[in-house]
Design a protein that fits this description.
Strand content: 15-25%
Number of strands: 7
Strand order of the largest sheet: 2-1-3-4-5-6-7
CATH architecture of the largest domain: 3-Layer(aba) Sandwich
CATH class of the largest domain: Alpha Beta
Radius of gyration: 27 Å
Shape: globular
Structural class: alpha/beta
């Protein structure tokens, strides 16, 4: 009579395989956690560059540009000696004027327009000249401090008229 010798089959639950699986899980979990901790913002390559035309002395324009950069835009500042002349040359009606005018894609942006409104404009792609927040409204991006005012972001069209694009409290 022959005695059979049992041949040990490798188990997927061996200590070695369990250790490998544990290490892989930790590595993947650490990577997923690190990715999740990154700020949620669109890729800069998706958003067009914002060219801002401003007076060399204007500080609030720089604060507005910082607001846009924090929202994922690449911003290029251009100091100009005559902002109203630049606004007119670009095609934004004077009645919507503020301290700076910007171009983003095919649109103009006048004044302290929130980055979220610009992103919405780019996503919806309406037939328009662009957006405007006329004047220098307290509480708008770049004009923080003091008593905040309610204001409207206007959608300006080619004939020089505008409708409310967004209301801010």
């Amino acid at each position: 009579m022959q005695t059979s010798k049992a041949v040990a089959k490798p188990s997927i639950f061996s200590k070695r395989n369990l250790l490998r699986g544990l290490m892989l899980s930790i590595a993947l979990g650490t990577t997923a956690f690190a990715v999740a901790q990154q700020p949620a913002m669109p890729l800069a390559s998706v958003l067009p560059v914002v060219d801002v035309y401003k007076s060399p002395q204007c500080g609030c324009c720089k604060l507005w540009a910082k607001h846009l950069e924090q929202a994922g835009f690449k911003v290029v500042l251009h100091d100009v000696s005559d902002v109203p002349a630049t606004r007119k040359k670009l095609g934004m009606p004077e009645k919507f004027g503020s301290c700076h005018t910007a171009t983003v894609g095919q649109y103009l942006v006048e004044g302290h327009v929130p980055a979220s409104d610009i992103k919405r404009l780019l996503a919806e792609h309406p037939k328009a000249t662009g957006l405007a927040v006329p004047g220098m409204v307290q509480g708008s991006p770049g004009m923080e401090g003091g008593k905040n005012e309610s204001y409207d972001t206007l959608l300006v069209v080619a004939d020089g008229t505008a409708t409310v694009f967004n209301h801010h409290k």
